[in-house]
Amino acid sequence: MIITITNIKRVGSDELTSVTIENGVIKGWNLPEDGEVIDGHGGTVAPALIELHAHLREPGQTQKEDLASGLAAAAAGGYGTVVCMPNTSPVIDDPAIVRSLLEKAGTLGQARLKPAAALTRGQQGEALAELTYLKNAGAVMFTDDGRTNENARVLRLGLETAASLGMVVSVHAEDASLRADGVMNEGAVSEALGVPGNPAAAEAARVARDIEIVAGLAAQGRPVRLHVQHLSTARALDLVRDAKKRGLGVTCEVCPHHLTLTDEALRAFDAVYKVAPPLRTQADADHLLEGLRDGSVDCLATDHAPHTRAEKERDLLDAPSGIAYIELAFPLMYTRFGESLGLEKIVELLTAAPARVMGWPEPTLDTGAPADLVVFDLDTQREVKPTEFKSKAKFTPWAGETLKGWPVLTVVDGKVAYRRE
Ligand code: DOR
């Protein structure tokens, strides 16, 4: 199969060019038109985005999302690769589940699935899952995300076992006893609203503990790889920054919702803003943004976490946590931070940066590279209309906002996975 995409610009260039794709690889640039010709209308081409953190809800929670809707939503968001989280029903802790997800995703023609598997059986935190078999089945990461790893000894064993397999352990870093029943950031707003708060210290204390586990192993010549998911507080970021200075195998991701929203949003008493870890203060968001600039934040990830509308319409105390917006992540980042961070940096944080966290080859658009790419329309301002989402979660905090930087074409493995009508 041959496709030529014409009238596109490479990031950092104003020159119009074309790219030809043959049998899943980039055949070359500016070649004579060949095969199916797709007009890029002056859009900007980049490697397809890589998502390290999405909840696709299969198996067992397909009223919220499924592989077909979630991977279509990802492709519409410009993503070519998605790591799905294992906090499903049943939990993805069995090699047979990993295999069946991969088999199904392979038939969909959407973004490529890379499943994460549970670190512990049933994500119960007590006994390690069968990590070797899970890796052999195709799992790319181990995590109990959605739950916290309270048992430090089990986490340490998991880090070591994963490291022996060349794998990263990702952690949802919140101290459960400090978080207690907090449903939003603990601070002036939670006090004013009379809503139970979840203190920043719950995250920082857990990140500190986990870094010390990594440090203790490193000091004995036993290096491991810890990735802190959805890091939300200034203090936790300072701890990660310090761990990096110490040369430890610690990375972290930050989510666009923690950069663009704060706990002030909870004044609406709308559970669309309820997420774990919670929306923090503007000072935290500013600090995280600084971390993106100085490299202490490794990459961006969405933590796309769809729930049904009925669940999210419950009151703040009872509604589940999670914000679903994989279709908006790039336009949101580009609209809000395109000028301050720059297009190249935003693209890097969503492509090469997550690849580095995982130890994958950094994606490029060079001749001979795998044909995973996205074309963005950087100029047209469009309103966010959740009814048009491919995700089953047709609501979002940014509904009605005007954003630019929308993906118009996503190619995965040399095939069109998404094309804006
Ligand atoms: O807000 C969240 N929702 N945070 C998590 O860690 C889990 C996720 C979910 O599964 O809904």
What this model shows, in words?
It is a single chain. The protein is an alpha/beta fold and 421 residues long. The chain has 2 domains: 1-47 and 364-421, Urease, subunit C, domain 1 (Roll); 48-363, Metal-dependent hydrolases (TIM Barrel, Alpha-Beta Barrel), CATH 3.20.20.140. The protein is 32% helix and 22% strand. It has 14 helices and 19 strands. The protein has helices at 67-76, 95-106, 131-137, 152-164, 176-179, 188-193, 200-219, 234-245, 256-260, 282-294, 309-312, 329-341, 343-350, 352-358, and strands spanning 2-10, 17-22, 25-29, 36-47, 49-54, 79-84, 112-117, 141-143, 169-171, 184-185, 197-198, 226-228, 250-254, 299-300, 373-377, 382-383, 402-403, 406-412, 415-419. The protein has an 8-stranded parallel beta sheet, sandwiched between helices. The chain has a 7-stranded mixed beta sheet with strand order 3-2-1-4-15-18-19, covered by helices on one side. A hairpin with a 2-residue loop joins β18 and β19 (415-419). The longest helix has 20 residues, at 200-219. The two termini are 22 Å apart. It binds (4S)-2,6-dioxohexahydropyrimidine-4-carboxylic acid.
